Amino acid sequence: MTHHPTLSVVIPTYQRPVWIRRAVRSLIQQPRPPAEVVAVARDTDIPTHEAIAELQRESLPFELRRELVSEPGFMPPVKVGLAAATGEIIAVMDDDAEAQEGWTERLVGHYADATIGAVGGRCINVHADDGPVDVPTTDRVGYVSPLGRFVGKMYCRPTFSQPVDVDFMLGGNMSFRREVAHRIEFDMQLNRNVAQGYEVDIGLQVRGMGWRVIFDPLLAIRHYSAPRETIGLRVSDFESIKWYSYNHTRVALRRLSFLRKSVSFVYQIAIGERRAPGVLPFALAPIARRLGFDVAFAGAALEGRVLAARSVIGHN
Q1: Is residue 22 part of a domain?
Q2: For 75-111, what is each residue's pLDDT tens digit?
Q3: Residues 99, 75 share a domain
Q4: From 143's CA, which of 157, 203, 240, 259 has a CA 20 to 30 Å away?
Q5: Both 141 and 216 in a single domain?
Q6: pLDDT for residue 235 is more than 80
């Protein structure tokens, strides 16, 4: 008899009572619903508590549990949810998203391969009135480049239809075997702004444990981009670029091999990225501006990278 692993779906949520209802109800519609859904809310977020309580009074095809977290940020509710979930497979889904039909069954099906420790999928951004957002195509997703850049592109439209091995997943559409989830270290030094790069940190850990990480382009959620107070890199300013650069550098220095982390650090300090330039674009500002570098944030980027290097060296 075929064994179908039990699935828990963790939904971190904050100040989105309307959206959490839609997210949970998208799981009700699945041909094979999960065994449980764990909604993780801020302890002070009373409207969201009430929305979850209303859902719990409905006749659901799964157990809906509420867990609470007091610490702000993106990472704490994911950490609490993964620890609390009881399924053999634990998925994480955004609270302002809907799972497409067949999402749960397709996700769990990948774990029939004993070499796979984590499975993720794509995000289809949707305008409430106009349907899916027009996005560019991509032929590769979820990888760390030879120069140490983190390239996600999981919001883009893949040119391929078969699952592929990747280095990391999208935070709002990722899953793990329970034994893998319970071994993940949540580096709370990354818990600033939108915790940019924490998914890379997790994915590289899973790869480092010897498991495969898979991206399935047909495993999709519809994402509605509900409002949130935290802006992070959604708006470029000194603080967000500083902590983006900090997180990128800290993850690279802690998770990549010696050669790759060395190349990454030198490249980031010297060249950097268009939104977070290094020393050379700053020194050659007129040319760099024409190439698309936002040299006004070079100082913020450098400060973040130096702070990250000190945090890693000091810890060692």
Answers
A1: yes
A2: 999 999 999 999 999 999 999 999 999 999 999 999 9
A3: yes
A4: 240
A5: yes
A6: no
Among residues 147, 163, 160, 239, which one has the least CA distance to residue 194?
239
Domain-ending residue, one of 194, 223, 252 = 223
Confidence grade of residue 131 (pLDDT, cut at 50, 70, 90): confident
Per-chain mean pLDDT for the chain: 93
CA-to-CA distance for 308 and 289, rounded, in angstroms? 26
Among residues 92, 154, 140, the alpha carbon closest in space to that of 118 is found at: 92
Dist CA 281 CA 89 (whole Å): 45
Same domain flag for 121 and 217: yes
Instruction: Determine the 3-state secondary structure of 260 from DSSP.
Output: helix
Length, in residues, of the chain? 316
**215-231: per-residue pLDDT in tens?**
999 999 999 876 655 44
Listed residue (186, 193, 169, 299) closest to 251, CA to CA:
186
Choose among 97, 228, 262: nearest CA to 172: 97
Look up the domain containing 191 and give its range: 7-223
User: Does residue 194 form part of some domain?
Assistant: yes
Domain boundary among 223, 252, 283: 223
Instruction: For residue 62, give Cα distances in angstroms to 30, 96, 109, 145.
Output: 11, 20, 19, 41
Q: Is residue 2 part of a domain?
A: no
